[in-house]
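In this supplementary section we document a worked example of the pipeline. Step one takes a protein sequence of length 293 as its only input; no multiple sequence alignment statistics are reported here. Step two produces a three-dimensional model, which step three serialises into structure tokens for compact storage. The input and output of this example are shown verbatim.
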Amino acid sequence: MASQRDVKNKIASVKNIQKITRAMEMVAAARLRRAEQRISALRPYADAIGRMTRQAAQAAGAEAERLPLLREHESRTDVGLLLVTGDRGLAGGFNSQIIRAGVRFSAEMGEEGLRSSWYATGRRGVSSLSFRGHELSGAYTGFADRPAYADARTIADDLIQAYVDGRLDRVEMVYNSYVSPLTQHVTRQSLLPLSQRAIGDEPAAEPRAPVEYEPDPEKILRRLVPDYIEISIYRALVESAAGFFGAQMTAMRSASENAGELITDYTLQMNRARQAEITQEIMEVVAGAEGLG
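The serialised model returned by step three reads:
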């Protein structure tokens, strides 16, 4: 049995860890509230951009197919995979589930004879893919906790240029969409080529007012499509940031509770050690008294 001093040292060590996990939980909770506010403000705007893009594409009709980002390539062998992860860990399986989903999706495409080009945001995704031996065509780090629209624009410009140049025939994005602090859903979204399915079908009950386009719908669509790609990536970055803080808060709360259970177990162990030492001392006193008698 461990000595009383050894157990006391273990208790002190676990208490120090518990202080750290509780502090990290509170910090993650504060950042989560701010991230939730950003999501609430962004979602209506992103939905409006999608609705405007869809309506402009419908109005443009066959002329929309002349836009490079709406036109499918004859060759469809090269697929770009954009994985959205965090810059840090200590968030349970938040980052690993994105990596697993991306690797699994790449393997499925490999069986179909397609080649994958890897793009990743967040240090965790970049380092994990590099460790697995995947060569990255694009790596974007340092902004996962608080992404800016300029970060999404940089990523979108690289992907759009690769698609227009013919280096990519398709672009898919995998990220954690935010549901609640306890729930983040792995989501896959097709970014390019932008199709009616990618933008989303218009709800049957959605009112349609007559719209006159000036300039013509094709020119408007030419401007809206890059904006739609950018806002889609930005939304994924913001949702991922909120999901990370929710996952980290949950993980740190669980760690604090586990530390509390360890402290209870070690306290019981220390009490047993103290009782054993007292019993041993009593036995020594009794044996000494009997020896003198």
